[in-house]
Each structure stands twice: as structure tokens, then as C-alpha cells.
Amino acid sequence: MVFGIVNASEWRLSDNIDRARKVRLLETHFEAIVEVITKEAIPSCWKRRRLDDYPDLTRVTIDLSLSPKTVDLFHNGAGGYRAQYYRGIELGEAANRYVIDSLVPRLKCCYTTEQERPLPWEHIETSLMHADAKIWIREGSWLGDVAVAGQNLATDRWEGNEPKHMKRFEAWWAQQTPEKEDRLKLKGGCLDRYGAPADRRLKSCRSRDIHEHGFT
Fold first, then answer.
1. Structural domain containing residue 205
2. Distance of alpha carbon 42 from alpha carbon 45, whole angstroms
């Protein structure tokens, strides 16, 4: 898979975004964004969460602290994470896997220095290597506050699909371009009670949601 940048005529950023930021968002390649993430990410909140709907299954979750500029490129950039899904579902899924695979060595290194290790590294790695593992921006206070995040991104597909949005999220969330969010969230795939990968997949429509609506 070759990651690319969505043309500015399709990835339309409003004039509310200053010129320097707009240039970064329109010109930074995905590989460059991931390279910064892998050097900069500070993991925390290592947890194994039990699933309410499937009490025999758990998944690993990790918070990643980053500079807001890096999160901005990841989520809002024409070469960022959502942009790869915009270009194609398979490309987006490859981008998702690329980020996680790139992060695993740094995560392992950071975990070995943790004074308290709430679960074995093997469980963490197995969950993250699961086909259902995913990464996403932290949905902080900006999500419900247009004044904070701004409706600054427009694409024909996402706007055209607004009437088809499922009720579980608002159409205008895709248009938001949060500038001050400083975290991403990693969610691994499901593990059974023995720490082995489970066949259960969660949010089966996730990739199509991001492709067609820009959010999930």
C-alpha cells in the first residue's frame, strides 16, 4: 500500500485555519507523521478492560501523550489517518496497522521501565497485534464544542453522506479540526480468559464509517 495526500481541492480547510498550520496539514505525509508519533509518544494508563457485552473477553487500552501539533496532523491532515481512510477502506486499514506496528517497539521499551506493570507484556502485545486493534484521537471536550474544535474541514463525500449518518454520532463531528488535543488512544483486539486472541470483532462498520462519514 502506498499512503498519499488528499488533494487540497477535496480536503478543503477553511480560512479560519492560519496559513502555517494549513500548509502543515496539506503537505505532511503519513509516514512522516507516524515517525514523529513513534519518537514522541509517552504511553500511560495501561489497562486490560473487560467488555460489558462479552464478560469473558478483555482488551488492552493505552493512552498516548503527544504534542497537539502531532495529533493535529494525525487527525486533521490531508496525509493523516482519516485521510487514508478517505482515499480507500483498505488503505485506511493498512494505515491503522502501520501506526500500531510502528509503535510496538517503543511501547515495549517504555513498558520495561514502568515501576508498576498491571499485566504481562505478552498480553499487551497479543492484543495490539490482533487484527481488530485500532488507534484514534482522544474524544475530549472538543467533541461537543464547535467553538473549541471548529468546523473547518469539508469533503464532498462526507457532506454528501450526512443524511445517511447513523444516529450514534453527529455528522458535524467529521468537520471538526481540534488543535489542542494532546492524546491518542490505542485499543487492542479481544483476548480470551487465557490471554489468547479471540475471534470476536468489535465495531465491524468502523472502517466504512470513517471512509464514508469521516468519523466513527
1. 12-213
2. 10
Please check the confidence at residue 167 and state whether its pLDDT lies above 60.
Answer: no
Q: Is residue 1 part of a domain?
A: no
Note whether residue 4 is domain-resident: no
Query: What's the pLDDT tens digit per position in 112-147?
Result: 988 778 789 999 999 999 999 999 999 998 988 777
Q: Identify the pLDDT of residue 128.
A: 98
| Strands 134-137 vs 183-191: parallel, antiparallel or unpaired | antiparallel
User: What b/e sequence results for 204-213 when a residue is b if at least 16 CB atoms lie within 10 Å of its CB, and e otherwise?
Assistant: eebbebbbbb
The whole model's pTM is what? 0.94
- Residues for the chain: how many in total? 216
In this structure, are residues 26 and 8 in contact, taking their beta carbons and an 8 Å threshold?
yes
Q: Is the dihedral of CA 89, 43, 138, 79 positive or negative?
A: negative
Domain contains 53: yes
Q: How many angstroms separate the CA atoms of 105 and 40, rounded?
A: 13
